[in-house]
Amino acid sequence: MRYWPFLLFALLISAIGALVYGLTSSPAKPVPVKEPIEESSALRVGERIRVVPAPDAVEVRLFVEGVPHRTTARVNQLINNPDGILLTAGQRAILDRSVHRYRAKPSEMGKYDMPACFIPHHFFRYYDKDGRQIGELAVCYCCGDIRVTPYTYGPNGDRSEVWDFDYDGVKKMLKEMDVPTDIDCVGHARF
Questions:
Q1: Contact 99, 146 (CB under 8 A)
Q2: What is the pLDDT of residues 121-142, one digit of tens each?
């Protein structure tokens, strides 16, 4: 009972802070995105469709992010590279074959459970002829999930439509590039 004044005071301060923040912050504006594939185009169970994040891109660069004090000298070198690593035509072909939309079978639903973390360390950024970024594939080997921009769809309401990614194929390519996949999750990467 003796804590009521303190709790009421804390609640009042929180409410005033939220009100001030709401009044001073600019309103969110939706970013217009042209969906390369209609979100409503449902797949049949077991159907898989290859997706290239930005097929019109003239180049793809790999950027690596991580916690600098927890990584090796090689990873620090990759993190501090502001230009990223330009993928060769062969590497681009591997990457372009790696992303699929997939309608999971009921028996496969556990394989595609959404992870709680999703802190990606590998970013494949797609650029047009003018050097503008037009797409991105963010890959988290730690939890085994990806995000594909400019696509906004992902798992549908029943979570049966998912992104499917060739983690092993791209991991082999990254190993050949001397880029580790277990950044910030050494010994705990899902793939």
A1: yes
A2: 999 999 999 999 999 999 998 8
Tokens of residue 40, six digits: 């409503």
What pLDDT does residue 175 have? 95
Tallying the residues shown for the chain, one arrives at: 191
Contacts of 106 (CB under 8 A, 6+ apart): 45, 160
- Three-state DSSP at 103 gives strand
What parts of the chain have a pLDDT lower than 70? 1, 3-12, 14-41, 112-116, 152-160, 191
Please state whether beta strands 85-86 and 145-149 pair in parallel, antiparallel, or not at all (unpaired).
unpaired
Residue the block writes with tokens 């990606």: 120
Q: CA of 8: how far to CAs of 22, 104, 137, in Å?
A: 21, 50, 47
Quick check: 144 and 190 in contact, CB under 8 A?
A: yes
Which one, of 92, 126, 119, 138, lies nearest residue 184 by Cα? 119
